[in-house]
Amino acid sequence: MNTEKNGFQELRIREKVAKLPIVQGGMGVGVSRSHLAGAVAKEGGIGIISTAQIGYDEEGFEYDQAGCNLLAIRKHIKRAKEIACGNGLVGVNIMVALKHYKEHVKEAVLAGADVIISGAGLPMSLPELIGKECKTKIAPIVSSRRAAQLILKMWSHKYDRTADFLVVEGPKAGGHLGFSKEQLAETTDAVFDEEIQRIIECKKEYEEKYEKEIPVIVAGGIFDAKDVRHAFSLGADGVQVASRFVATEECDASDAYKQAYIQADEEDIQIIQSPVGMPGRAVRNKFIEHLEKARIPISKCYNCLEKCNPSKVPYCITKALIDAVKGDVENGLVFCGANVGRIHEMTTVHKLMQELLA
Q1: 241 vs 49: CA distance, rounded Å
Q2: What was the pLDDT predicted at 2?
Q3: Which of 1, 19, 132, 308 could potentially form a cystine with 44 if both were Cys, beta carbons 3.0 to 4.6 Å apart?
């Protein structure tokens, strides 16, 4: 539900309120942690921390990834809330494909996450994992009416509850995509606009059943105020923006990572296959060029994905993402959105959010 607040639309997710209807998308490994998420929440939005190998720089990570990730989830949620100073909301993005998905969800709840957004698979068990009395709000990421209907129906039938909000992610999003390569080529802006409206229509049944509003957040390709206004014209309650937050002073990635975004051109963007089993959008570099010629052997497993056979996947996504976020942007994997070629300069979270809601 949206209500006017200081000229902007505030976003209500049941009793939780964000003054501004902007969700900062979760970006891993290490791109959106406490510094970025806290800054977005401080401005009145919803700051999202990615839990994917979030503890990559913790002491002992090479030997205990699971333990370091749980420690980092607690630490970064706490830090983000301290930075937010009581404003906005702080949440996490947890991929269903993670080997320790259940543990991440439970740790985020214990740490006081305001919201959990879950994608890279269908989060069918999410309501069970958070428990009935939990104050943390939950949202699946969906890319089609079919997926939204499937999740809402299952949650209603099995757990007698519904989503607190929906994140509808389009084909222009960064990182892992809920579309096949064929669908990416066929799904135009107009086609996806229709799909957004179909999703908005299908959730009304569950709003009536549970007597609560289910806000819809549109994600993927949101670049400027024009895109925000367009999303609202379709009936959305808010927008999720990710790539543009990378080129901010507050982003948790290295300066080299941020510069890779600023220097990228439209022709540098490429769709690759991820070990997660989904297509992914990334900046073309030496790493991707190498993959086109041969598999990159894996010498160590970081226990990140539930369904991953190190002897068969083309590369280790954990190592590739960690190398990039630390600054080796030529030999690592730099995920990005479709509009990264339009990013030309550094900014701040405050300036960006004001620009988006101009």
Answers
A1: 13
A2: 55
A3: 19
Boundaries of domain holding 218: 2-253+344-356
Q: What pLDDT, on a 0 to 100 scale, did the predictor assign at position 185? A: 84
| CATH, residue 163 | 3.20.20.70
Cα distance between residue 20 and residue 10, in whole Å: 5
d(CA 38, CA 47): 6
For residue 203, what are its two tokens? 């959730």
Statement to judge: residues 106 and 173 lie in one domain:
yes
The per-residue pLDDT for range 19-42, each reduced to its tens digit, is 999 999 999 999 999 999 999 999
Residues 143, 61, single domain; the answer is yes
Region of 28 (left: φ > 0; alpha: ψ -120 to 50; beta: rest) is: beta
The per-residue pLDDT for 187 is: 87
Task: Give yes or no: residues 170 and 275 share one domain.
Answer: no
Give the pLDDT of residue 5.
43
Provide the domain count of the chain: 2
Q: Tell which residue, 239, 243, 192, 187, has the closest CA to residue 218.
A: 239
- The parts of the chain modelled with pLDDT lower than 50 are 1, 5-7
Give the per-residue pLDDT at 196: 97
What pLDDT, on a 0 to 100 scale, did the predictor assign at position 250? 98
| Residue 357 and residue 350 in contact, taking contact as beta carbons nearer than 8 Å | no
Joined together, the tokens standing for residue 235 give 């009936």
Specify the pLDDT at position 102: 98
Q: Region of 174 please: left (phi>0), alpha (psi -120 to 50) or beta.
A: beta
- As a whole number of angstroms, the distance between CA 161 and CA 176 comes to 27
Query: Given this model, what pLDDT does residue 6 score?
Result: 42
In this prediction the pTM is 0.95
Residue 279 pairs with which residues in a beta bridge?
273
Q: Would you call 92 helix, strand, or coil by DSSP?
A: strand
Q: How many whole angstroms separate alpha carbon 284 and alpha carbon 97? A: 24
CB 126 within 8 A of CB 102: no
Q: For residue 159, give both structure tokens.
A: 């757990």
